[in-house]
Amino acid sequence: MLSSYAILIFLWLSEALCSTFDYIVVGGGTSGLALAVRLAQSHSVAVVEAGTYYEISYPLAKTPGADVLPVGSDPDATSGADWGPSREALDKWAEAVDDPSYAFDNVLPYYQRSAAFTPPNLARRLANATTLYNSSAFDPAGGPLQVSFTDFVQPFSTWVARGMEGIGLPQSSEYNNGELEGYHYCMSTIRPQDQSRSSSQAAFLPGLLPSNLRLYKNALAKRILFDEDKNAVGVEIDKVGISTTLRATREVVVSAGVFQSPQLLMVSGIGPREHLEQHNIPVISELPGVGQGMQDHPFFGPSYRVAVETLTRLANNPEYLVQEYLRWLKQHEGVLSSPIADFLAWEKIPDDLRTGFSEGTRHNLSLFGDGWPEVEYLSGAGYVGNVSDFYYDQPDDGYEYASILAVLTAPTSQGTVTLASDDTWDLPIIDPNWLETESDQQLAVAAFKRVRQAFASDDMNPVVIGEEYDPGPQVQTDKEILDWIRNNVMTLWHPSRTCRMGTPDDRMAVLDSRARVYGVNRLRVVDASSFPFLPPGHPQATCYMLAEKIADDILLTQQELTRTDL
User: Fold this and answer.
1) What is the dihedral of CA 380, 386, 392, 394, to 10 degrees?
2) For residue 376, what are the domain limits?
3) 165, 291, 331, 519: which sits with the fewest CB atoms below 10 Å from its CB?
4) Which residues does the Swiss-Prot or TrEMBL record annotate as the active site (predicted)?
5) Rg of the chain (C-alpha set)
């Protein structure tokens, strides 16, 4: 009788016999699946996906700006939140890559193509959690990704709304129309009918999976293969310990994510020459920007005891957790049907908190422009601390806890992704380098003070119990605040631009505006690593936009080649 392992090998070898495709997409995350499904409407496509698990732990280098370094998360982990960047950010993108097709008005149709919007169910939401929105930001013909507002609203979020009003922020309805500043409840990628997550896998695969798309699950891409003319012609992959080669007759598209897209390029011979030679990797295209210039949205926030139920109860009461899980499973409602942060706000730091900014900080922040918010605030219905383990770190003293999280959306610090070895089984080394610049440090301190202003407002006074719990009122000076932030900073899981777009005269650019890798042919990178910079907002919508836009470009290129051949 064959062993289970032998059966796996037999099935894998049978699958590998069909190994030539028009296109190979490496990575089945947010961008990868959307792009692959669009291409597969008229071409044969292979998707190489490393696994099915949500979390991967990445080794992290020590960073001078922060003292706490989290492990990585799955590429789709923040794909629950759906709104695009500001109009100004996209117009800057067009400018940075010298391609007007990226200007806000030109890419809006690509934002709209993937998403189908459903208005909020006001009969099921809290009466004091009414949200404003502009449905014209969506196309009625869009889809298959489901976008809506969750039925359940964290009770603490209604108090954060009051706090934001108390410190002068207006309510916004145009956050999906290029204007972020103000506050609003979160629009999420969620299926309205059962309050479950609408991810790229759930949205694109079940209903749209074409017969000529083959998904290689639990298959790790080892390297991209090139011919003597530097054309990408295939991908070497490893599954159940057996290596095989998939061939691409037209193009290879890498969508492996911000950490592993640059890793795959480097082990394949594309990247900084000195670093590749350290690992005895032959250089095919010397691109010093691969793995460099990483930007992220770091966050932090003080915590308070509050007179309203939060996730503290869920974390400390297993019986209640089971009860809520069954409630969601059977009735599609309750606290588990909502993200932790279901409310947010955006602003530039007001003048009274800018007095301590240095000339350099003022200059750096001015470069982002008037329509680019510097800080985002998220409602955090629980004790946050350093977020090393949100559920297990909740205080168990009979109180409920809550936080308002401050996120830097105009960061100037840059991190790196480098190789641990020449083998993709060895995960890359990540140095996020948060808070390395003076600008980020001063902005972080001002944002922290702004959160304190909200909690101290008359509007939030009825819900706050006692003094600040963490770090506590004894932390007052800018140095004390910065030291606390450094010990408690966390990523919002928005790393980007490790294979960034740019113009041919930019030596740190890895891609042109069509996501094509410089120095080689028939190879593109399409995911958040492709961004020329990290825009404000959350990147999920922009990852879908980029996938839709580049899919169109690939198909148009193929049509032109076909006409030329005729």
Assistant:
1) -50
2) 81-188+298-408+435-488
3) 331
4) 494, 538
5) 24
Residue 89 predicted with pLDDT over 60: yes
Beta strand pairing call for 20-26 and 242-254: parallel
The number of distinct structural domains making up the chain is 1
**How many contiguous H segments (helices) and E segments (strands) does the chain have?**
14, 23
Least confident of 77-86, 122-131, 180-189, 214-223: 77-86
Picking from 441, 523, 433, 437, the residue whose alpha carbon sits closest to that of residue 484 is 441
Whichever domain contains 159, its CATH number is: 3.30.560.10
117 in any annotated domain: yes
30 has binding-site annotation: yes
In a domain, residue 221? The reply is no
Q: Which of 451, 449, 447, 463 is nearest to 404 (CA)?
A: 451
Any known ligand binding at 297?
A: no
Q: Does the structure show a pLDDT above 50 at 288?
A: yes
Query: Which residue in 227, 295, 229, 352 sits closest to 493, CA to CA?
Result: 295
561 close to 122: Cβ distance less than 8 angstroms: no
Per the domain annotation, does 338 fall within a domain?
yes
What's the pLDDT band for 393 if we cut at 50, 70, 90?
A: confident
Do 277 and 436 touch, CB atoms closer than 8 A? no
Would you say 130 is a known binding-site residue?
A: no
Residues 6 or more apart in contact with residue 97 via CB below 8 angstroms: 501, 502, 503, 512, 513, 532
Residue 18 binned pLDDT confidence (cut-offs 50, 70, 90) = low
Establish if 88 belongs to a structural domain.
yes
Active-site positions? 494, 538
How many other CB atoms are found less than 10 A from the CB of residue 355?
7
* Percent of the chain with pLDDT strictly greater than 90: 69
Mean pLDDT rounded to a whole number for the chain: 89
